[in-house]
Design brief:
Number of strands: 5
Order of helices and strands: HHEEHEHEE
Radius of gyration: 26 Å
Distance between the termini: 97 Å
Largest sheet: 3 strands, antiparallel
Structural class: alpha+beta
Helix content: 40-55%
Number of domains: 1
Strand content: 15-25%
Low-confidence stretches: none
Mean pLDDT: 81
Amino acid sequence: MLRKKLRDKSGTILVFGMLIIMMTVWFTVLVVDLSLGFAYRVQLQHISDAAALGGAHAGQDADYHPTTRKPRSYIHKELADPVANEIISRNLKYLPSKVTVSHSINPNGELGMSHYQQYYQGSSLTVVLKGKVKTFFQNLNNFFSTINIHSLSRVKVFVEE
């Protein structure tokens, strides 16, 4: 009797079917989470681009080098940073609440440029946005609970000759 029940294979299709459906749903949710993460990264890139351009526009200035008398351009930090911060804060409110973002403007010592190079030699403005997106799997013991997103924009100003 027991041997006959062990050989009976009715219901195995149901078990395999349920496993396939569960795996399909899991992969679908995974693809949706990754797609949303990519879409939020694109939005962050647009925000950092706008902040870098707006800050550079607000803070740009030019003069002549005191010894060589060659024209040079630079960005005033005290003028550029508030404008860039304002652009960032106004645009971050359009991201959903499951996206947390931190930002830095002209990060000191990062990206291979020192403070001196960025403000006095390079005449560039750099905006870095870093974010985390909470996923559907956020309650599964830190397994794929967040997607890290990152955007960087650098604007360099030049003197027209």
